Each structure stands twice: as structure tokens, then as C-alpha cells.
Amino acid sequence: MKKLFITYLPLFVLISCTPSTTISETDTNEAKNEINHVMNKWHESAAKANHDAYIGTMSTEGVYIGTDATENWTTLEFKEWSKPYFDKGQTWDFKTLERNIYISDDGKTAWFDELLDTSLGLCRGSGVFRLQQEEWKLRHYVLSITVPNDNLNEIIKINHATDSILIHQIKEKNR
């Protein structure tokens, strides 16, 4: 019994001294509140045509995916594309109707989805945040237009010609 105790004592000490990798419920709620605030300010920055604040929310390694199949930009590409619109004050004003935020066990990554009231109608946004130097940075954002299931056949018909061309181009490029 003594040998067993001496053999396993270091293991028990090691386990008891190992810091927890799961953040507390309080820290999780605080992170969710911070991200909710950052997202609200991000949408507000667009509505107020504040390009620096808008792009500054995104990680330099970020990705923005728009509603068009060709809109898959790095942060730098999106910055360059969006700048003229912000300069002219021709931006967008997304109002959040609902948002769900999820935090990783280590508290360093978060993902979310949101339903938005936009000039395009109802849209869905989703994305990923990463905690970088005590600041939440948007690493990935996807904007999509919602389509009621009852209207899918109409949308498929409308998109068919354009989708066919894009599918062909992408297949050719990937050969």
C-alpha cells in the first residue's frame, strides 16, 4: 500500500496543481458581453461610415465573406474594396434582431450567429472571434441573405445561369 501511495502521490500533486483550462461561467458571460458590445460597435461603425473603426475590429488575418459567391476577401482586400463606399458615406446599417454567442472552454475563441434587419431584408451573419492581446478580433465573418424554404425553387431558377458560369469557372481554375 505504501509503494502504491508513493508511486501515485506525484501524479495526484501534478493533477491538483495543474490550472484549469475551462473558464468560469462569470468569465464566459463577461466574454459574451464584450463580444456583443464589439459586434454592436462594428455594425454602428459601418452605419456611421467609420472605416478605421470598422476594419480595426477585424483581425489582420481575417476573412469577410459577402452574399455574392465571388465575395471572399481577406481583411486587406475587404478594406480596399469597402474604403470608397465608406468615403462616400454609402455604407450599410445592419440592426441586430438576435445574436447567439458561444465561448470556447479556454476562453480565447468565440463564435456567433446573428439575425439582422438590413436593406437587403433579413440577413444572417456568423463569425469567429479570437482573443488577441486582451482584445477580441473578428477573424471570420459570413453574411448571407435568408431565403424562405417555400421560395427556394424560385431562387434556384433566378441563380441558375450565374451559378452555372461560376461553377464552371471555379472547376476550370481548380484543375
From TrEMBL:
Q: Where is the SnoaL-like domain?
A: 35-147
InterPro entries the record matches: NTF2-like_dom_sf, SnoaL-like
Q: Which UniProt keywords apply?
A: Signal
Signal peptide boundaries:
1-22
This chain's protein is named Nuclear transport factor 2 family protein
Per the UniProt entry, what species is this protein from, by scientific name? Answer: Splendidivirga corallicola
What high-level taxonomic lineage is stated for the organism?
Bacteria, Pseudomonadati, Bacteroidota, Cytophagia, Cytophagales
